[in-house]
Design goal:
Blueprint (H helix, E strand, L loop, with lengths): L7 H4 L5 H9 L2 H10 L3 H5 L1 H6 L2 H9 L29 E5 L16 E8 L2 H4 L19 E8 L19 H9 L2 E9 L5 E3 L7 E3 L4 E5 L10 E3 L4 E6 L5 E5 L17 H4 L7 E4 L9 E3 L7 E8 L5 E7 L2 E3 L1 E6 L7 H4 L6 E7 L4 E4 L6 H5 L12 H6 L1 H7 L5 E2 L1 E6 L6 E5 L11 E7 L9 E8 L9 E6 L5 E5 L18 E5 L10 E5 L5 E7 L6 E6 L26 E6 L5
Parallel strand pairs: 7-12
Antiparallel strand pairs: 1-30, 2-3, 3-4, 4-5, 4-6, 7-8, 9-10, 10-11, 11-12, 13-14, 14-16, 15-19, 16-17, 17-18, 20-21, 21-22, 22-23, 24-25, 25-26, 26-27, 28-29, 29-30
Helix pairs in contact: 3-6
Bound molecules: MU-OXO-diiron (FEO) and calcium ion (2 copies).
Length: about 600
């Protein structure tokens, strides 16, 4: 047997398996190149490194003085900032859009802690979606960049700022629980540019919609009957997401496990409802039909779903890449049974059935997560020696345990995944795993065999490595632009901001990378966020002139409502508010 037996067991002998795989991929010449370009003077001056400088490294040094190669995206990179403000390069500005609590005409309010943003041009469906245009959420240039539907995920809430629950030892009132349950899920907002070029919310639009922890949803697929399904109450923990080539939103339920846990350790929500296995799925929402029932697709597996990125193969195959954001968890892909038809009603059912795979990075293989096909799943046992699974429904409901039983590779917390617009390679942000000494994370690039998203084997490399030498730490959400440049936001945990080994970074920010040429993998900082926030959800308009971004959990470490660590966006003594922002100043593509 030619395959190497990479397993958790040999990882236990020292560094984690993932860390050793990363080390095996790091190319010393590229590392030196990156360190030099990142401006680490001490490295550049080191006699040892001068001696080992390769011709490639010297070419890079000469090119360093040249302007950025993409004239349409020239900006003067900013440095780290600790200001309670969004700092942008000269010539760029932002406006606040849809802050928490913004009142909608239907009596509902915009939720808390905005994460993924999806921009759906108002004419997206009628203009026809080009499946090859996935770099920008399947938005082609002929679609409107002046009016659309903004889908906003609301990942979680801060009990102090939502409902005013300040003492975790005290039970919550019914009113507080209700306010919390209305603050999560998703918002669908109709937005358009006014005569002054400012984005506004159309408050009385029929498209306006909130889906929260009390809404009615439907489970589809092999595990739909689980825990009294197919009807499910609410969606929560909606982290990142993705756009489908038929114009729906995919919203990923991530840290669902905290909600039914009793106070003071959890949120203290009713475990009879929120303890069901009805959370932790990919949720599909049609933003263009406010009366449609959102669906949770069990065929795509249940884990701490961070994100989803959809690719369409040359033959119309639909493939969704996903990550499980937990330390030592896996990267997955879902290959739908049905191919893209171009008929929207028909394509709406594509994600209801298909094959789930988990990535084995040691062998470059996608492992089929299927009970009937895999003896390892039929034989897997719990600690009490009883079977771990009895059916594919049970496998899907605990896809992490199934992937690990198949010896898929536990990696360092996969956050966002995006697909390169020019070559179809798949970029995965592994944010960090402090338990294994991976403090600053990496961005990994996967190349499918023959460039086919349905392939069962792949190769991979390290695209960028976080740390003081590269200027960023803890990569999270990603988005590509039309030139194939990568934009990445960071998510250093709030408690670590501006302390110890994270001090170099300042607040969380937004970074720009070229993905080809001598500067590939070098980070240039474009934005820095307010105090104790994480920037999330970057999304472009079709013309590339507006970048939507979200500011999540500003002021999260505020000790009390009287001692606030951030007053963004309103300043003065105001409470901090999560919000989306629209950044202007881009020349477009
Ligand atoms: Fe919600 Fe893993 O970020
Ligand atoms: Ca994230
Ligand atoms: Ca995050």
């Amino acid at each position: 047997m030619s395959e190497t037996n990479f397993s958790k067991a040999d990882a236990a002998q020292g560094q984690s398996l993932w860390r050793r795989l990363v080390d095996s991929k790091l190319d010393r010449r590229n590392f030196l190149k990156n360190a030099t370009l990142a401006g680490v003077a001490a490295v550049a001056a080191s006699p040892l490194q001068l001696r080992s400088a390769s011709p490639a490294a010297l070419d890079v040094a000469a090119a360093e003085a040249a302007p950025l190669h993409n004239p349409r995206l020239i900006f003067s990179p900013i440095g780290p900032s600790t200001a309670d403000e969004i700092v942008l390069p000269a010539g760029y500005s932002y406006q606040v859009l849809a802050p928490y609590g913004f009142e909608l005409a239907n009596g509902q309010k915009v939720g808390y802690n905005h994460d993924w943003l999806g921009f759906y041009p108002i004419d997206m469906v009628e203009k026809g979606i080009d499946p090859s245009y996935y770099f920008n959420g399947f938005l082609s240039p002929q679609m409107s960049s002046e009016e659309g539907l903004l889908v906003v995920n609301h990942e979680y809430f801060n009990p102090m700022f939502v409902g005013g629950h300040v003492d975790p030892a005290v039970e919550k009132s019914a009113e507080q629980l209700q306010e919390e349950q209305h603050s999560v899920g998703l918002s669908v907002l109709h937005i358009r540019k006014n005569g002054e070029g400012q984005w506004e919310i159309v408050v009385d639009s029929p498209h306006t919609r909130r889906i929260d922890a009390t809404s009615t949803l439907l489970l589809t697929g092999p595990a739909a009957e689980l825990d009294g399904g197919p009807e499910a109450i609410g969606s929560l923990a909606n982290c990142s997401g993705g756009v489908t080539p038929w114009g729906t939103a995919l919203s990923c339920e991530e840290n669902f496990q905290d909600y039914p846990v009793a106070l003071p350790d959890g949120y203290g929500w009713d475990p009879a409802v929120y303890g069901k296995k009805h959370y932790g799925w990919v949720v599909e929402v049609d933003p263009f039909d406010a009366s449609s029932t959102p669906r949770k697709h069990t065929a795509m597996g249940r884990f701490r779903h961070e994100n989803v990125a959809v690719a369409v193969g040359k033959d119309g195959s639909v493939v969704a890449y996903m990550g499980d954001d937990k330390a030592d968890s896996c990267v997955y892909k879902f290959v739908a049974d049905k191919k893209l038809s171009g008929n929207r009603a028909e394509d709406m059912t594509i994600l209801e059935s298909g094959k789930l795979y988990a990535a084995d990075f040691g062998n470059g293989k996608w492992l089929l997560v299927d009970y009937d096909a895999q003896e390892a799943l039929q034989k897997a046992k719990k600690s009490d020696d009883t079977p771990l699974f009895a059916s594919q429904a049970e496998v899907l409901a605990d896809a992490r345990a199934a992937a690990l039983a198949l010896r898929a590779t536990p990696v360092d917390r996969p956050e966002d995944i995006e697909i390169h617009p020019k070559d179809g390679s798949i970029f995965v942000a592994l944010t960090n795993n402090t338990g294994h000494g991976n403090f600053h994370g990496q961005i990994v690039r996967i190349v499918e065999s023959e460039g086919d998203p349905t392939a069962e084997s792949f190769d991979w490399s390290i695209f960028a490595v976080g740390g003081p030498q590269s200027g960023f730490s803890s990569p999270d959400n990603l988005v590509f632009d039309a030139e194939g440049n990568l934009w990445m936001v960071t998510d250093i945990s709030t408690s670590r901001h501006n302390k110890g080994i994270y001090k170099f970074h300042g607040n969380n920010g937004l970074f720009f990378f070229r993905t080809e040429g001598p500067f590939a993998g070098i980070a240039y900082q474009f934005a820095s966020g307010p105090v104790h926030c994480e920037m999330t959800g970057p999304a472009w308009t079709p013309d590339g002139k507006t970048l939507f971004l979200a500011i999540q959990h500003p002021g999260e470490e505020s000790p009390s409502l009287e001692e606030l660590s951030s007053h963004w966006p309103n300043g003065g003594t105001e409470r901090p508010l999560p919000a989306a922002v629209a950044i202007a100043g881009f020349p477009g593509w």
